[in-house]
């Protein structure tokens, strides 16, 4: 449903993304991994239409994305960033409903949707009326997920969604997020540098290095048939930290 | 959204609603010294007496400003001196009366016959000392080359001052000191110097009991007081002109000295009182002079000051915030905007005022005196920098996370600006507005430079009369007002800065 063809992006002299071809299918969970600076965040930004690619095309359900339809395209995609990216001047509820209000949804439709979402992310009602500064990191991230899902997008993109959380909260949220994703049945593209997280969530792993996709496949395929010794090294390097855990 | 539109309309209304709709038929002006103010008051009362409503803009400024105001039609009439007209206005030294009248007529200005007194430079000594040495004229000084002269710096430098005086009379005196005019009287009294320069209608001639030496070789040019008025005034209000011209040949030098010295030295006697008393004695015109208490004066000045502030500051906000937004959104234009508002800040107040006078006149607005748009325009420009800069900084400083989140949500640019970026920048914008407000309240004292009133007026007058209490009457309220404005903006934070932002600050 989402297709990148020959997409590349450079920032000045830095080649953040080499010509890349990727196809994302419906209801699949993709996890993009790689060392920092490998281009995984750039890939996400380009796919979301936040950064305009230097070359190549992005097609969504057969329609090419250009300057005129990029705003409505972004609204078909839910986006969650590391620390939630909540606007501090708005209450949690206002953060969640911002786009819907901009689109002039009726207020009972908005309320209904918020109800559904808060049950989905398991957030108590009173938390919705607090400001981001009054919420814990985990709660903020749940609000961030609600905001991303407000318009019921077809694709959910998450950029290091759990990166800023402490280990206990992180663990809880991982479990919850997996449940949410399974319940939703949407196409999910998640960026992380954590191999465990990738293994935990991914239907398919996309391993990147130096702005290029090195290998794409299931975690098992990456382990059993690495295309490059780097693939094994990358996965092993993190495995060795916590050798027992197999999620 | 509606709240903001109403708010902006309210601000515009507050900025532009006139304080009074009443327009006087004749507008009198005066220059920045006691004598001119007294004469101006006389003119106002004479118009009233002829049944013509008149207002008097006090202490508009120096010759250039007041004459420009006359030509622009900000005022209709003011008192001037022939010597000044020849030297400063017409730029030649013809003191031929008829020639001056013709030259002024070409500028659309009429000149009355002299009012009677001549306020020129003269030399003065203490009466006691002059009598002892039997000095009555300037020529008599030739016999006493040991006398020590102390002249005001201006007199030492002027063409019609000491340089040519010395050669004209061939005075042999060696010891000539330049000093501050106000200090000269004290030095003379103490005997540190023997001869000083004075104005012939100087109030201090009486108070220090000075002998004015006769200019027997006719060195000093004549500074006969006359009235200058616009040549459309006789058509608009013949009875007012008839009444004003009653002053021709009516005031003697000694009467003017008396009037000046009453206004300057007697406690509780102000220029209007002196003018009214003289007109009553001379023409039997009885006028009621409002006795102004300190509180009433303070209130009046506060109103004038706040008038300048509201008319300049509120439009400044409405102009500066969009400029700051433009500067943040269009970086190249932003450089130009930031540089321009920065440069404006370095232009001296008086220069800015003079620069704006023709512009304001071209728009048919009041240039000088009360309600001056010139002062308002200058203040408006001075208020831009902090607001523009802080708005720019606030918007540019929004974290990339929030910027990215807003983009990713697919919000259109205007919505992003109004609902995300401006609220996030609000603390910085408000801080800029607060700084600008304090600067504006302080700078509004510059209004006094062109007679726009406010707290600057007592400050300038106090400096002129060397009267500390007068200076404080302006400086203290100005400081208090600045603090009050600052406090008001602290409160305004509750309204302008979203609650969520105030939380994250603590």
From TrEMBL, chain A:
It comes from the Bacteria. Keywords: ATP-binding, Nucleotide-binding, Transport. Residues 2-235 form the ABC transporter domain. It holds the Pfam family ABC_tran. The keyword Transport applies. GO terms for biological process: quaternary ammonium group transport. GO terms for molecular function: ATP binding; ATP hydrolysis activity. This is Choline transport ATP-binding protein OpuBA. The gene is opuBA.
From TrEMBL, chain B:
Keywords: Membrane, Transmembrane, Transmembrane helix, Transport. One of its GO terms (biological process) is glycine betaine transport. This is Choline transport system permease protein OpuBB. CDD domains: PBP2_AfProX_like (cd13607), TM_PBP2 (cd06261). It is found in: Cell membrane. The keyword Transmembrane helix applies. It holds the Pfam family BPD_transp_1. It is a multi-pass membrane protein. One of its GO terms (cellular component) is ATP-binding cassette (ABC) transporter complex. The chain crosses the membrane at residues 337-356, 362-385, 437-456, 468-489. The gene is opuBB. In the C-terminal section; belongs to the OsmX family. Belongs to the binding-protein-dependent transport system permease family. InterPro entries: ABC_Gly_betaine_transp_sub-bd, ABC_transp_perm/SBD, MetI-like, MetI-like_sf, PBP2_ProX-like.
């Amino acid at each position: 449903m989402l297709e990148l063809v020959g997409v590349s992006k450079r920032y000045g002299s830095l080649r953040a993304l080499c010509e890349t071809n990727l196809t994302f299918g419906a209801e699949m969970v993709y996890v993009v991994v790689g060392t920092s600076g490998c281009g995984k965040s750039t890939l996400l930004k380009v796919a979301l239409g936040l950064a305009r690619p230097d070359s190549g095309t992005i097609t969504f359900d057969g329609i090419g994305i250009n300057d005129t339809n990029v705003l409505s395209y972004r609204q078909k995609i839910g986006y969650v960033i590391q620390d939630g990216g909540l606007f501090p001047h708005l209450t949690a509820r206002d953060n969640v409903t911002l786009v819907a209000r901009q689109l002039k949804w009726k207020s009972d439709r908005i309320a209904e949707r918020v109800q559904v979402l808060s049950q989905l992310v398991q957030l108590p009602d009173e938390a919705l009326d607090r400001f981001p500064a009054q919420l814990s990191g985990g709660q903020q991230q749940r609000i961030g997920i609600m905001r991303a899902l407000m318009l019921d997008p077809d694709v959910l993109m998450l950029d290091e969604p759990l990166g800023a959380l402490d280990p206990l909260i992180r663990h809880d949220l991982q479990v919850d997020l997996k449940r949410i994703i399974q319940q939703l049945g949407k196409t999910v593209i998640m960026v992380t540098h954590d191999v465990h997280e990738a293994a935990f969530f991914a239907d398919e792993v996309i391993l990147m290095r130096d702005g290029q996709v090195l290998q794409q496949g299931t975690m098992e395929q990456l382990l059993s048939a690495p295309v490059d010794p780097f693939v094994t090294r990358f996965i092993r390097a993190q495995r060795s930290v916590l050798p027992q855990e197999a999620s | 959204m509606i709240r903001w539109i109403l708010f902006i309309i309210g601000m515009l209304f507050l900025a532009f609603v006139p304080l009074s709709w009443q327009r006087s038929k004749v507008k009198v002006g005066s220059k920045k010294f006691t004598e001119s103010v007294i004469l101006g008051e006389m003119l106002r009362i004479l118009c009233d007496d002829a049944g013509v409503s008149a207002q008097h803009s006090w202490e508009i400024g120096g010759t250039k400003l007041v004459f420009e105001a006359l030509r622009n039609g900000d005022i209709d009439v003011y008192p001037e001196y022939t010597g000044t007209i020849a030297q400063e206005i017409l730029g030649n030294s013809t003191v031929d009366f008829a020639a001056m009248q013709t030259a002024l007529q070409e500028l659309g200005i009429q000149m009355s016959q002299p009012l009677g007194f001549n306020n020129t430079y003269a030399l003065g000594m203490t009466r006691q000392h002059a009598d002892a040495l039997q000095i009555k004229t300037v020529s008599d000084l030739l016999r006493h080359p040991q006398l020590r002269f102390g002249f005001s710096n201006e007199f030492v430098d002027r063409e019609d001052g000491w340089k040519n005086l010395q050669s004209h009379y061939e005075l042999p005196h060696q010891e000539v000191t330049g000093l501050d005019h106000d200090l000269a009287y004290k030095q003379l009294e103490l005997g540190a110097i023997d001869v000083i320069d004075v104005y012939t209608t100087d109030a201090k001639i009486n108070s220090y009991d000075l002998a004015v030496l006769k200019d027997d070789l006719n060195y000093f040019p004549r500074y006969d007081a006359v009235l200058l008025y616009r040549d459309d005034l006789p058509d608009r209000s013949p009875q007012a002109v008839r009444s004003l011209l009653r002053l021709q040949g009516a005031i003697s030098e000694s009467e003017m000295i008396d009037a000046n010295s009453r206004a300057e030295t007697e406690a509780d006697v102000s220029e209007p009182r002196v003018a009214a008393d003289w007109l009553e004695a001379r023409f039997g015109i009885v006028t009621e002079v409002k006795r102004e208490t300190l509180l009433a004066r303070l209130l009046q000045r506060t109103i004038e000051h706040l008038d300048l502030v509201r008319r300049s500051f509120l439009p400044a906000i409405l102009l500066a915030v969009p400029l700051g937004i433009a500067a943040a959104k269009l970086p190249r234009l932003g450089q130009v905007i930031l540089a321009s508002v920065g440069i404006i800040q370095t232009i001296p107040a008086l220069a800015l005022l003079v620069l704006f006078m023709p512009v304001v006149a071209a728009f048919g607005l009041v240039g000088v005196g009360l309600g001056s748009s010139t002062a308002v325009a200058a203040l408006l420009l001075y208020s831009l920098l902090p607001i523009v800069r802080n708005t720019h900084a606030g918007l540019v400083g929004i974290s990339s996370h929030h910027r990215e989140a807003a983009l990713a949500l697919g919000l259109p640019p205007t919505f992003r600006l109004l609902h995300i970026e401006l609220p996030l920048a609000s603390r910085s914008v408000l801080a800029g507005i607060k700084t600008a407000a304090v600067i504006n309240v302080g700078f509004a004292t510059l209004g006094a430079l062109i007679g726009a009133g406010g707290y600057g007026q007592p400050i300038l007058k106090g400096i002129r009369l060397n009267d500390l209490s007068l200076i404080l009457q302006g400086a203290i309220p100005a400081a208090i007002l600045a603090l009050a404005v600052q406090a008001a903006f602290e409160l305004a934070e509750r309204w302008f800065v979203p609650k969520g932002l105030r939380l994250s600050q603590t």
